[in-house]
Model the fold of this input.
Amino acid sequence: MRRVIAYITTILWFAACSNPVTNPEKVDAWPVIYPDYIGVTVPATIAPMNFDCIGGEHERVDVTVAGGKSGRIHINGKKVSFSQDEWRALLEANKGDSLLFTVCIRQGGIWRQYRPFPMYVSPYPIDYGVVYRKLAPGYEVYSKMGIYERNLSSFDERPLLENTMVTGMCLNCHAFNKTNPDYLSLHIRGKNGGTLMQIDGKREMLNTKTDSTLSACVYPYWHPGGKYIAYSVNNTRQSFHTVKEERVEVLDLASDVLVYHPETHELLRSPLLQKKEVFETFPVFSSDGRKLYFCAAEARQIPAEYKEIRYNLCSIGFNPEDGTFGERVDTLVNAAAMKKSISFPRPSYDGKYIMFTLSDYGNFSIWHKEADLWLLDLQDGAVRPIREVNSNDTESFHNWSSNSRWFVFSSRRGDGLYTRLYLASMDENGMISKPFLLPQKNPWEYYDRLAYSYNVPDFTCEPVKLERRKVEREIVSAKRVPVRVRH
Done:
């Protein structure tokens, strides 16, 4: 009998909790939610956009999501957590249209209904996932870090490689070819340093340092044809600021740009990219593969004049038939004339734009609060800040989706300390949407507890194929394939 009474009581309790809200008090304001998903544009395959109501203590939340074309989801509970199947079906049914969220919050026994807010469902697809580095804070010692892959249609994250596999290992500078993970370059620092290169399942561990280059190869970017990969070589030093608003600076005492030909294991160089009086870095190929863009600054005395180092966006011709370079360097954006400096240029794959980070000086913009994303229109040469996504804190590394309709970027806007990943869309007319934080199953709990920063995000069109244990053995092995400079 007690079991029956308990069962009936439980049923009545759940029924009362899930009853529709009647006659709520109307509030002419948006609900205060985390993350801020009000008015964002999302792809139809994005993971459920769960959110937390953070406008004070509350007993319960009631949310109705209605599709502009069709479909409806209703939730009544302590958290706003959508069923993945229901969410996916609702977005698919409303592709190219919108969703309307009506949020009611019960506080002190009183239901309040807030102004309904929209979420737009883009007609443009997004790639399978995002690969990024996550690392714990630290400057002098390699703390916990790894390269991880996130499926954008779910909350599934898996490690590709972690530095716990090999003592003292630092993982950085990973790159894919136009989101194709069959072309992978990954740099490893530490005792077992080298460059991991995998092309169509064939993998090599390279020693990219030669007697005639400054360092091993870093900052990679694949040629769209997959035949070449551009790198910079950098003589780098780390310096710390004495004021709390500025933390750490990474300075190049010298740097050059070159191109690697995997088939012959040769480094291809141009005297125009090896000048001692110029710092060249961050090379990237144009969408047609016939230009090499890079950042270049007049060399200065380090550290005395480090705040006077300002990089312009430049280009040089490149012939993919024979791997030769053009005979002149062109300046596309003269940032130095603006008393600014450019880092991380990323051409859109449709050939229309170059996105870059603009800061006050140097090229290590990830600790520059003034760093913003800018856009160069390659059709008319116009340059503008991307005000639609910039904040009052650091915007830094970024990459395009394969169809150039989405981009992912890192930002410190959340708390000024940790970088998080944000996504935004760009339509065929260049209109850019409000960015949204990478969704998580329990977003407030996840980001509040996360003591890691996201770094170097890049889209992938399919899951990365990487044999962790074999890679581990190859890293600890002394075997490295040497590269040579083509003369």
Observations:
- The two ends are 91 Å apart (CA to CA).
